[in-house]
Design a protein that fits this description.
The structure is a homodimer. The first copy, chain A, is an alpha/beta fold. Helix content of chain A is 42%, strand content 15%.
């Protein structure tokens, strides 16, 4: 029986591919959508022209639903939103900001709106302002994250207590068993980032993909909490940040150290030392670069195996 | 069908009550064991004489199996171990140390040994030195914790990849749905701390129990990483620690600030401001003080409900 998220988006499996800067262009989004999940173009790393071209390519590559992720801290966001409407994108995931800002505007234009949260306060806010579904993202997730540090295991039941919206669990989910766990916790669907970052169709640099599949436990940390908290691989750049902390660097110094283009340098251009490498803890259990369709198929198979095998007491 | 952990301990349900300083004396351990789980006396806060008396009382209060938890950083540990053998305790959980130190000694005396780990390195070590089962404890757990910050959602599958021992998941688990999630991830059983800290039979001060049921999201943090990382409620003492960090305090200053008896002051004597209040993130979803047997019964019922309802795709 199709669940709330499958019905909302018109998809076969309750698996959403996370919109990730420098990793999720149209190739990845179309591959996931064509395999029965929901593919998402991550617009956070794209100039307006690039985003338009990516959406056009995605429409050519799939007839299935797909979405666009828009981080609300993006400076040129009005242009992005106009392009999304002009290109008739039907599903928008907003993140890193207040859901009140864009939800009505998007809904008035017939767009399904999903907002990413990491705490109960914003989950309640989403319900108030008419968001259609939420992603609740745990501490273990890669990239930008909440300050409360609540993990997926705790966050999903906590959010369910205060918010009745369809709920997509994110953070630490890259396998069928983690998907089964998330649905047991009360989620309607899962959002998968790191596992798809290391897919064939990911637009990440090969160096970064190869790094993802080689990381072990303790390889990442949520840092730069004075700016926007972000989970990074502990490479040379990360250690520069830690040195800055040791000398009690100001927020301005941290901003200067981060500079511009660190994420592109690391994830898209493959500079593993000076670049910013955003990935989740779950990368420690990812060992192979695979086609996105295969990843999705294996997740569904493993999910069915786990659910079929588990017994009541 | 009974799983590996039920068989190993001779218990009905795969639910272990965590050994917690100042919370888990014989009343709680016996209540959990009498309800079909495994009760644990937390010896970390006990003088040798107290531990002996607690074990004696527990044997009078239940004929079911129970265990004793011994943090390996405890100074008077030889006396504790001798008492455990003299009083014929059959199950010992060791934590906060190297499993190589005591496992052989305990095994030679016919005792089942379980060790608590937070990373793959020590999980492998446990298998090498002949430990019978492991607890893998995620970042969200209360009290002392690992430096890798790996969450339960990621830790359980990660440990399963490298260690074939019976596996007990800990961290973020205080409900039947979280228990279902943990078993989907590959755990054989769960260890539950915070939920039992707020039970009628917990030896914690009423002030602390009432605080546990009132915390919301973001109320705890893993701090004091320079000493032994510990998850605490953000009370006045916690803020003193954060002030110390701001003035770049040395490890010696942090030790002096922590001082002696902080945990007793907070959790046992009920000083909510100057005491150390160790609890897990899951406290945000705990809203009522209940008898331990009722907690266990509700967990099993909710687990069965969740497992009965979830469908394959």
């Amino acid at each position: 029986m199709a669940g709330r998220i499958e019905k909302l988006f018109g998809i076969k499996y309750p698996i959403i591919q996370a919109g990730m800067i420098w990793c999720s262009g149209w190739e990845l989004a179309a591959a996931v959508s064509n395999s029965g999940g929901l593919g998402i173009i991550g617009s956070g790393s794209m100039y307006p022209d690039v985003l338009r071209e990516q959406i056009k390519q995605c429409k050519l590559a799939t007839e299935k639903p797909f979405g666009v992720n828009v981080p609300l801290l993006y400076p040129d966001i009005e242009k992005h939103m106009d392009i999304i409407v002009e290109e008739e994108v039907k599903i928008v995931f907003t993140s890193a900001g207040n859901p009140a800002t864009w939800t009505s505007w998007l809904k008035e234009r017939g767009i399904t709106v999903v907002h990413v949260v990491a705490n109960t306060k914003f989950a309640k806010k989403c319900e108030e302002v008419g968001v259609d579904a939420i992603v609740a993202e745990g501490f273990e997730a890669g990239g930008h994250n909440g300050r409360e540090e609540t993990t997926t295991m705790v966050l999903i039941p906590m959010i369910k207590e205060v918010c009745g919206l369809p709920l997509i669990a994110a953070g630490g989910i890259g396998s069928g068993k983690a998907m089964a766990a998330a649905l047991c916790l009360g989620a309607d669907a899962v959002q998968v980032g790191s596992r798809f970052a290391a897919s064939v169709e990911s637009s990440a640099h090969e160096n970064f993909k190869n790094t993802i599949i080689q990381t072990g436990d303790g390889a990442t940390e949520l840092t730069l909490k004075e700016l926007v908290p972000v989970r990074l691989i502990k490479n040379a750049f990360y250690h520069q940040v830690q040195e800055a902390y040791k000398r009690d660097a100001s927020v301005e110094e941290l901003k200067a150290l981060l500079g511009h283009g660190r994420a592109k340098k690391g994830m898209y251009l493959g500079d593993l030392e000076e670049g910013e490498l955003e990935i989740g803890q779950v990368s420690a259990t990812i060992h192979e670069i695979k086609p996105a369709g295969e990843i999705l198929k294996e997740m569904v198979e493993e999910y069915n195996y786990v659910i079929g095998k588990i017994e009541t007491l």
